Amino acid sequence: MPDDDGLLASLRYLFADIIGDEDEGPPVLPDACPAHLGPAVSGAIHLMIEYQSTSYAQLYVDRLNRFVGRRGVDDAMLADIAQLLAQRMAYEDPIRIAQLKLGEVNAAGGLTARSADDIKKFRLDELIDALPAVIADPILGMLDWFGWRHRRVSIRFSANSRFSVRRLRIEAGLKRWRLFSIRYAKERVWVERWLHMIDRSLTKQPAAATAVIQTATMISGYGDRYRQGIADWHAIIDGLAKPTFDGVLALPDLAAAITEARAAIMPDPRQAALKRKIAEIRARVPQAAS
Length: 290
Fold this sequence. Notes:
Number of helices: 14
Structural class: mainly alpha
Shape: globular
Largest sheet: 2 strands, antiparallel
Strand order of the largest sheet: 1-2
Strand content: under 5%
Helix content: 55-70%
């Protein structure tokens, strides 16, 4: 299970967003953060503020601070955690795509009449997941009734007219509801579990910590690629990492096992090749006595 303190921190900063507690300035860097990582971490903090809020940036800092000065975490590992944590916390949803497109308008100083439209394909449930759960749940129920939950739709993100820019502003403004959304709830749980696995690796098998950190690169974007990455990540963690940390699987080189399993990943929703590889790796080592 993810660290309870981590989940409480997530909920605390969600509450800060609810009540609009944004009086304080941007979060400061952790005291023990290496100086040469300062610019990258500062950039991530500003990204979190742009993406969501000051309190969200503070959540980023608090999550990162768990590993600052931690035994076994060198500067390269800390840099990877900082970068990958920022990428996952600024996950790509329809709201973020609108934010980025609107940023093009702001950078150009006005309408960008010749800019190319961004046409993104989503499943209906993926769009609805960006809404607060209290709104999304009944809509998803209705989509299930019609059999449309997985129906694909194309959404145009355009900045070529005043109307389209106004629509982008409305869509980007939905970020105030993001932390209530179904998607955010899933992302919060995933981030905390990833951090928890890093923590367990540092304790149980330090040589595998870098490989565990890098598993975050399996997940990106949205749509089928995102769903496949999430499913593959859980398969590797549940099949190899967690059993090793729990003492159920006597795997001497978890890092090599993770690398081998990742090499077997195919764009297959059934995960046939990956599951075979995980079973093959597990079959090579004796299970610990219960």
